[in-house]
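Lab meeting prep.
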Amino acid sequence: MGAEPVGEIAEKFGELRSKSEGALISYITLGDPTVEASLKLVKILNKSGADIIELGFPYSDPLADGPTIQASHQRALSNGVNTDVAFRLVEKARGITTNPLVLLIYYNLVFQRGVERFFREAAEARVGGIIIPDLPVEECGEALEASRRHGVDLIQLVAPTTGELRLQKILKASSGFIYLVAILGVTGAREILSNLTMETVKRITRYTCGKIPVAVGFGISRPSHVRDVLAAGADGVIVGSVIIDRYATSLNNLEAGFLAVGELVRELKSATYRQNWE
């Protein structure tokens, strides 16, 4: 199960599992709220306990994302962040943390740059994995081959509506971890997680059988959410919108917003400890 390569992301999940911890994957958009501030956010996420940092390349039509992340893309684009700038920021982020970096990018940007070139540059920037939310598994052949050539994980998404036959295809084309979309809809912080989320975690982990980690994203915003999905069998959580909400409501006082981000990430990380969710 799972497509090669197996690199630092799998090693990180293994390290955390040996310590009875789940993985906290924290998302920000490169260049938001400013180019310099996004690097400061990487420092804060790293220092506050994020195990893997997911970096979004800004895009004009982020269809999988809700209003919070859409706004972050728009701010980054208005700051002049294109793919060239984003890669330079990734290289600087690599110098900030030794934890794995994962890129989230829409396929049009990969296609425009050239699939081979994009994965080569990602490998040169020591990126661990890439998520392309609008690239269906049936169309991912070129990207999958490039990911294998350059040793960068291609992380695939599954949804509550994914059927068993398609799930088998996705598992064969995935490495690093499986991104389990917790809800039907777009990204964005939710007050509560539905029973459907827990049922989906249990269904998917029956197929993965611990052979590839499962991380749950979309809607995760509270320590109780983290504890619930880990207790249901997931290996990690992906948190983005609520982090951006913390500083986006303080754009005129970013230091206060960044302090709030650090506090939030520490609380979420604490919830990944097994003794806190059993």
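Slide two material, second protein:
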Amino acid sequence: MNLSILEGTISVALVGRIDRTTCSGLIKSLPLQFQKPISGDIVIDFSRTTRFDEYGVLVLLEIQRLAGKYGKSVSLVNAEETVSKVLQMTGFDRIHNQHATEKPRTPNAILRLGVFMIQVVQNTQSVITFLGNLIILAWHVLRHPKSLRYDDMVLYMRTTGVDALPIVGLISLLLGLIMAFMSSLQLAQFGANVFVASLVALAMVSELGPIMTAIVIAGRSGSAYAAEIATMGISEEIDALKTMGFDPVLFLALPRMTASMLMIPILTLFSDVFAIAGGLTIGVTMLDLTPVTYMSQTLKALRLFDVVWGMLKSVVFAFLISWVGCLRGFQAKGGASAVGQAATSSVVTSIFLIILFDSIFAVVRSYL
């Protein structure tokens, strides 16, 4: 590419091959060629161009972009028939005219509000469609149990439940330690150390055990569900499933959701046990309680209703986590960034719904 200035006009001669083999280097070198402010309009000369293809149009658009920064126009001269055909096929004239005549428009508040409302309606429609599809397919699986992919379900039971047990157990153990230690500072003033066991057991079994387990699984498995399905959507694997006659929701979502709803309640039970073990450690080492006394007080404080209530909450949380993870995965559109957005949105939405439904459970329990 040769640049020359003649009578206030900058002539850019495209020499040789302007195609996929050379356009990358040309585009990289253009900002260096136009470092100084452009004083005149640009004329692109094709008289010495030996080959020009669709990639060469990218070079023209980059020159046009650089010229637009200084308010200058771009024109083409000596374009042969082959060059004209490529420009016509790629719609360069239309793009060129748009760039020349249109100025970037900043959307006003009303337009942004309208776009936001359209996105809300589309998102609501997507949520309702996905939920309805799930209900229909769940009924189909109940009538035809063999239609569920049990091998995949077992795999997700391992990744969601067994593999998550160490982190859930560790967090619950530490949480039990902290609760017992902090509550002992207050209860010791009244000589009521033994009630530390009651506090830890009731708080973990009915409230903190289900919610902490759900939050850990939302960050660990819910985001993984969203990322996996989003990746399959972007790589057109979901379209391939549809082409082959498979229902993607039945194929991808139901095994994950079934595995989550089976394993998260079991994880919650382990979380309760580890938290009580943490409280027991503090009770024995710092409060001079015997293990028998601590466990006796724990069993005395707990009722079967508390355990069942915590399990019921964990089943609902499991449904929300897996449902949101799969939904965000199916909603992902675009490139690699959509996978990250789907995973992030899955975690944020899941945690919000967990807190919301935990509040609803608290209100319902107040009437029981």
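Talking points for slide two:
The two ends are 81 Å apart (CA to CA).
The chain has a mean pLDDT of 84.
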